[in-house]
Structure formats: structure tokens, C-alpha cells
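Readers of this paper often ask what the protein records in our data store actually look like. The remainder of this section carries one protein's record, kept here as part of the documentation.

:::
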Amino acid sequence: MLLACGKKAKQVLDKEQMASVLTDLYLTESKIDRLPLKRDSAQKLMKQLRPLIYKKHRIDSAAFRRSFEYYFENLDKLKKVYELTLDSLTYRETALEKAKNDKLKAEKALRAKEDSIRQMKIRIDSLASDSLLKTPPVLQDSLEKKTKSKE
């Protein structure tokens, strides 16, 4: 999308690109906010990370600023950008929650299998010790015959 400014045309990010950049910026800010940093340190960190986000999206700070100003002057378009941004953040949050729930279910199933294996081992050990204490039937018959013959 080109924005004519006098004789010089300047590049403006389309809605999807702008929403994608904003999504990454908000996610980065959220991660920084959860760090045990003082406000000024968090701001310095964000200042260092912004260029990396711009690089990821193959833009520079001037293109972002120009685009933000354009959308800010066109509030209906800005609203659509923020709707896309919110949709993206909501989708990511839902996917993250699903992944967490899937992980918890898998861990629970693993614990259940481990418990089942432990119970089987206990039963096997119990059966093994019971059978070791018992005289096998063949030997039992032989012992009974010997005992009766001695009497």
C-alpha cells in the first residue's frame, strides 16, 4: 500500500502485516513484563528487542512509525488492524492453553501407566515370594510318601 505524501510516496504496511508486527510487539512486552525487572530496565530491553522484531518482519522503525501514523489517522482501518491483532493473540492463547492441557493429560496418563506397572511388579513379587515359600506339588507328594513310609 502506498501513501502519497506530497510528491514522495511512502510504503505503509497492510493490515495483516501491521497486525502481525503489533502481535509480536505485544507478546514481547508481555514476556518482559513477567521478568523481575525494574521499569527502566524493562524499557531498555524492549528498546533492544524492537529492532529484532522489525527485522523479523523485514521492516525498519521508520516503516512501522509511518504505518502506525497512517492507521492512527484512519481510525476505521486502525480498528480492523487491532481486531486482527486481538484475533491473533486470542488464537495463540487458545493454542497455548490447549497445549498445556494436552501436556497435563499426557503426564496424567504416564503417571497412571507408571502406577499400573508398579502395581504389577508388586503382584509379581508377591506371587513369586508366595510360590517360593510353597513346596511344588510334585515335591509335596514325594515328601508325604517319605513321611508315611517312615511311620
Residues 2-97 form one domain.
